[in-house]
Write a structure and sequence with these properties.
The complex is a heterodimer of chains A (about 300) and B (about 425). Chain A has about 300 residues and is of the alpha/beta class. Chain A is built from eleven helices and 14 strands. Helices cover about 40% and strands about 20% of the residues of chain A. Chain A has an eight-stranded parallel barrel with strand order 1-2-3-4-5-6-7-13, surrounded by six helices. In chain A, strands 8-11-10-9 form a four-stranded antiparallel sheet. In chain A, strand 3, helix 3 and strand 4 form a beta-alpha-beta unit. In chain A, helix 1 packs parallel to helix 2 and helix 5 packs across helix 6. The longest helix of chain A is centred in the last third of the chain and has 20 residues. The two termini of chain A are about 40 Å apart. Chain B is α/β, with parallel strands linked by helices and about 425 residues long. Chain B has three domains: about 270 residues, TIM Barrel, CATH 3.20.20; about 35 residues, no CATH class; about 80 residues, Elongation Factor Tu (Ef-tu), domain 3 (Beta Barrel). Chain B has an eight-stranded parallel β-barrel, surrounded by five helices. An eight-stranded antiparallel sheet of chain B has the order 20-19-24-17-18-23-21-22, covered by helices on one side. Chain B starts with 9 loop residues before the first strand and ends with a strand. Classes of the chains: A alpha/beta (about 300), B alpha/beta (about 425). Chains A and B meet through helix 3, helix 4, helix 5, helix 6 and strand 8 of A and helix 4, helix 5, helix 6, helix 7 and strand 10 of B. Strand 9 of chain A pairs antiparallel with strand 10 of chain B.
């Protein structure tokens, strides 16, 4: 049975080695100048190293260029794409059509993955971006399992689904943390903490904690829970979904590596020995529960939840 | 790269510079009455939502019959109707789309405002007469992305609210496509289309019209430090908030016209008829005055005051004039009560007897000072004397919603003029 690729976001080059050994088939890296909400910051020299390490381990490297670009960066996209093509990365992840236009111009053979985080919500849109040049669509996190499988049935492109970790709920161009400190008259805090990674918003009514951080791309607010569906992989493996992603953003490297090992085992068993998978899946979930940080409860995201409008 | 040849914006005529490329003033309407008012008060085009595929599932929204009636009304005034079909569709929304878009084409609307490629391509296939405008939900922020959508054949793009004047200038220089930009109304604090707070907090899909405005709520900001939660606020601080002030670009209209922006858009399909009338009439006056004599143009204080009479929140120029700071957000404030109520809609006026026939829209009584406004008149205030009902019975107050009443008004007023009352 066809196995989905296991895609993980590493923290640095050394971590790629750990993840490859833990069973990752691919990694997504990049720098915040071009990519959104990455687990680690990979400058050009790191990307060169990353590709070398990946080749040694026979895994793939995808680079994020999924920022929302304003005019000021448009002219440098070509140079970055050329660099990525020369370095031999396996695909570029984009959301902004400016990247697609640039790739057509300077590296027409480069593989493209379409990922806007929130707007890949139907099969037609996935195929549309496929006709424009994308080889893969990364589905929005806010759709359910049935919709994912229906999209896969109609898809002319590869389909990637996030199976683990936190997801982005919000991106603003405004400096919302900095603005709050400024409103409070704590100008010192802006320098000191604006770019800290440990901040969260507390929602009293729901008793939820939403991680919030700022970077070059603005302010990002993340989901209060980590998705974990290690025990619910059967339908998507049967549907031959092409890639499962573990997003490690705001997690420790050891945590990401451990989670990768467990999904590796779960995917292998689910594809090769279904009975055994059914026996151990609850145990695998319990093992992840056991290493879960206290402020990050697990849930199943929108896989089994309906939204109204 | 081909540099687009933009239309000439101004010309010298009889020794005086005048604007020859006048932008479209585009207004929102939540129902047929608001559509008519928007056009009567000076909108060149109106955008409305149908029963499906639009982003305000709580608004009244138009049936196809009402859309057709709106188009007939608009046609009489040379105005255009656009329909918002800017959801990001899920698979389950695909059935029925063909029929819906054909219905819009048959109703005679000029164009649709769209975000999802599914709807763009379906419209091209089944309703080719419809213009297709790219919605701000696509968060279009650079010229190269605009170039992409031009090559896809779109007639117009609505830019992201995050674009600045300088960025719009560059987009206009590099791509020959109609540009629509917001000038007034409520803002998303997030990049549009990239916020699913509502989905996560209330299971309502923001990108299909279910947004519950979680960004207007209060939160507490903490820092996690070796497992300990440290509050980043003092007792006296207002909670963390990300509620943006409303957009107001009245001061920037001259700059927008000189940039050659094709359509100036007012937000607010959920807003009242009084709001639509007030905002449209002010911007109509600003655009007309500037275009007639750009070099001697000054913003009148009365225009600013007029806009304030219907404001729901404090306002700010947002991204057009640079990235907004903390003063363009509201902390500890949830809304600003409007200082005026919409009190009545003029149905008729008898010049002989100076009697107005008016439909009541809020409580008023003899002795109240009220203000009349409308496209044909300069605002004036008046103290109400005796009030009668339709049958000539004297009333101690007009307290019944939509009741038809009569009373004396010294200056001439016209149907669809409005009467407002201060608090």
């Amino acid at each position: 049975m066809k196995k989905p690729e296991l895609l993980v976001t590493p923290i640095d080059v050394a971590h790629i080695r750990d993840l490859a050994e833990a069973g990752a088939d691919a990694v997504m890296i990049g720098e915040q100048r071009y990519g959104l909400r990455l687990a680690g910051e990979f400058k050009r020299e790191d990307i060169v190293e990353a590709v070398k390490v990946a080749r040694e381990h026979n895994i793939k490297v995808y680079v994020a260029m999924n920022a929302i670009f304003h005019n000021d960066k448009v002219d440098e996209l070509g140079d970055y794409v050329k660099f990525l093509a020369d370095t031999g990365v396996d695909a570029i992840v984009f959301g902004d059509p400016a990247v697609l236009m640039t790739v057509r111009e300077v590296a027409p053979h480069m593989k493209l993955h379409w990922n806007t985080e929130t707007t890949a919500t139907n099969w037609y849109a996935c195929n549309y971006w496929g006709r424009k040049g994308a080889k893969r669509a990364v589905l929005a996190r806010e759709i359910n399992m049935d919709a994912i499988i229906e999209i896969k049935e109609h898809a002319e492109v590869e389909i990637e689904v996030q199976v683990h970790g936190m997801t982005c709920m919000f991106q603003s161009k405004r400096s919302l943390i900095g603005n709050y400190f400024e409103y409070q008259g704590k100008v010192m805090e802006i320098e000191k903490r604006k770019y800290d990674k440990g901040m969260f918003l507390y929602d009293k009514e729901r008793d939820n904690k939403y991680p919030i951080f700022e970077d070059e791309n603005g302010t990002h607010i993340m989901s209060p829970n980590d998705i974990c569906i290690i025990d619910e992989l059967e339908d998507m493996i049967d549907a031959e979904i092409d890639s499962f992603k573990i997003d490690g953003i705001l997690h420790e490297r050891e945590y990401i590596t451990e989670v990768t090992k467990k999904y590796r085992l779960a995917i292998d068993l689910c594809a090769e020995n279904r009975e055994e998978y059914r026996k151990v899946k609850d145990q695998l979930l319990a093992e992840i529960e056991a290493i879960q940080p206290v402020h990050r409860p697990l849930d199943t995201g929108f896989f089994f939840k309906e939204t109204v409008y | 790269m081909m540099i687009a040849k933009n239309d000439k914006i101004s010309e010298i005529i009889n020794g005086k510079r005048v604007i020859v490329k006048k932008p479209e003033l585009l207004a929102p309407a939540g129902n047929l009455e608001k559509l008519k008012v928007a056009i009567l008060y000076g909108a060149d085009a109106v955008f409305i939502g149908g029963q499906e595929y639009g982003l305000r599932s709580n608004a009244d929204n138009f049936t196809l019959e009402e859309i057709a009636e709106g188009v007939r009304f608009a046609n009489k005034y040379g105005a255009k109707i656009y329909v918002t079909t800017n959801i990001y569709a899920h698979n389950e929304n695909i059935p029925g789309l063909d029929k819906y878009l054909k219905g819009l084409e048959e109703a005679g609307v000029t164009g649709i405002i769209v975000a999802d490629p599914l709807i763009i391509e379906t419209a091209r296939r089944v309703a080719p007469k419809l213009e297709v405008h790219l919605s701000t939900q696509q968060s279009l922020t650079n010229w190269k992305a605009v170039q992409f959508w031009k090559e896809e054949g779109l007639e117009r793009v609505v830019l992201a609210r995050e674009t600045s004047a300088e960025e719009i200038r560059e987009i206009k220089e590099k791509v020959d496509i109609e540009i629509e930009a917001f000038i007034h109304g409520a803002m998303c604090i997030a990049y549009s289309g990239r916020c699913v707070l509502s989905n996560h907090m209330t299971a309502r899909d923001s990108n299909r019209g279910g947004c519950c405005q979680s960004c207007r709520w209060d939160y507490d900001l903490y820092k996690l430090d070796s497992g300990k939660e440290i509050a980043l606020f003092d007792e006296n601080d207002a909670p963390f908030a990300m509620s943006p002030k409303d957009l107001n670009l009245i001061q920037s209209i001259p700059k927008m016209i000189e940039l050659g922006i094709d359509s100036l858009k007012i937000e607010g399909r959920m807003k009242s008829i009084h709001y639509v009338a007030t905002v449209v009439s002010v911007y109509r006056k600003v655009i007309d005055a500037y275009c007639a004599d750009p070099d001697n143009f000054v913003i009148k204080k009365e225009w600013l005051e007029e806009l304030d009479k219907c404001a729901n929140r404090d306002t700010a120029p947002a991204f057009f004039e640079g990235v907004p700071g903390y003063k363009e957000q509201m902390f500890g404030v949830h809304s600003k009560k409007t200082t005026y109520d919409f009190a009545g809609l003029v149905l008729d006026y008898d010049k002989e007897t100076k009697m107005v026939t008016l439909q009541q829209r809020n409580f008023f009584k003899p002795g109240d000072e009220v203000e009349f406004f409308g496209p044909q008149i300069d605002n004036f205030t008046q103290v109400i004397e005796k009030i009668w009902d339709e049958d000539g019975n004297e009333l101690d107050a007009a307290r019944h919603p939509l009741q038809i009443v009569k009373f004396k008004v010294d200056k001439e007023v016209f149907p669809y003029n409005m009467m407002r009352k201060g608090h």
